[in-house]
Amino acid sequence: MAAAYLTHQQKVLRLYKKSLRHLESWCIFRDKYRFYACLLRARFDENKHEKDLVKATLMLKAGEEEFWTNQHPQPYLFPDSPGGTSYERYECYKVPEWCLDHWHPSEKAMYPDYFAKREQWKKLRAQSWDREVQQLQAETPAEGPKSEALPPARREGDLPPLWWQFVTRPRERPM
Amino acid sequence: MAARIIARCVRSLNQRSVYFNRVNTAATLTAAPLTHGRTFSHLTNGHKSSLAQISGGSFQVFQRRQYGDLPPLSLETIRDRVLYVLKLYDKINPERLQATSHFMKDLGLDSLDQVEIIMAMEDEFGFEIPDAEAEKLMTPHEIVQYIADKKDVYE
Question: Which residues make Cβ contacts (< 8 Å) with residue A21, sequence separation at least 6?
Fold first, then answer.
């Protein structure tokens, strides 16, 4: 999402998705859910060709209110989603990669080729850092960045800015 | 007491060299009240403990702790599952479906259909795809890449 505001289409799609999820929480049997999901889809479909935005916004508002009155008190949440059972459960085990530099040399000697390769990567980072900062300074507008999205690498043979953080991010399920 | 129960289980497993076992488990039983913690830790040391040969026989008991987790994913399995789910969708023609076919341009689907497809992918793989990123996934290949990125497959 580039801008700070959602477009009408995005709002409608989000309402559709969350109403389907809450419907799934209400209708636990799959065939019953499928039936009511088709009915809901038909309701969205018959109004989707509305050209008047005022009317469409009023319909969206009515839809949101209907969703609010009919929502499930304990909707099904996936374990990894916010509010789920294993949300951020492994966050405490995600160690940042700079801790590898603080290992004792005897521990580092247990994985010699890994640390040799790591030295090469660190050299690469040092080389590309100035160009990354230059690119970011050139591309950020004067008031500040508009969104969190980082721009891609513009020149041939250049690495995208702040690639190191992305490449060395911890795993989703730390071992 | 737990050491006694475990010793009994081991005894029932090792049917061949019963005599040797009884001698050894009797030894551990007498040792149990004195060094209770030590025999217990000897029997179940760490996550994956392998009971070494109790007797002089060739029988080995492996105790492994079973953690609950899904089978590991690979790019091929993710791609197969994504394409399988898409073929089950009745608005998609399975012959025209390819990994790079765009939902809106090639397959003629709607944005509401795309939301339903993403929800089916969420149900298939068991984790939520947030709306901001879900609205950008327009081809099966992008979906596979996103799932592989989130699940650390062939990182």
Answer: A75, A76, B119
Residue A166 has pLDDT above 70, yes or no: yes
Query: Between chains, do B127 and A81 touch, taking CB under 8 Å as contact?
Result: yes
Q: Which of residues 102-131 of B touch A (CB under 8 A)?
A: 110-112, 115-116, 118-119, 122, 126-128, 131
Quick one: which of B78, B101, B21, B83 has its CA closest to B53? B21
Task: Enumerate residues 6+ apart whose C-beta is below 8 A from B122.
Answer: A78, B128, B129
pLDDT digits (tens, 9 = 90+) for B5-57: 666 766 766 655 445 445 444 444 444 444 444 444 444 444 444 444 444 44
Residue B112, judged by CB atoms within 10 A of its CB (0-12, 13-18, 19+), counts as: middle
Question: Which two tokens mark B135?
Answer: 């609205």
Distance CA A107, CA A100 (A): 10
Q: Which token pair is A139? A: 């591309």
Q: Is B141 exposed, middle or buried (0-12, 13-18, 19+ CB in 10 A)?
A: middle
Largest separation between any pair of C-alpha atoms in chain A? 71
> What size, in residues, is chain B?
155
- Does A85 lie at the interface with B, CB-CB under 8 angstroms? no
Region B94-115: mean pLDDT is 93
* Burial class of A64 by CB neighbour count within 10 A (0 to 12, 13 to 18, 19+): middle
B151/chain A closest Cα distance in angstroms:
6
Radius of gyration of chain A (CA): 24
- Interface check for A45 against chain B (CB to CB < 8 A): the answer is yes
Q: What is the mean pLDDT of residues A68-77?
A: 96
Q: What is the arithmetic mean of pLDDT over B61-78?
A: 84
Measured between alpha carbons, how far is B114 from B121 in angstroms, rounded to an integer?
A: 11
Sign of CA dihedral A68, A74, A76, A79: positive
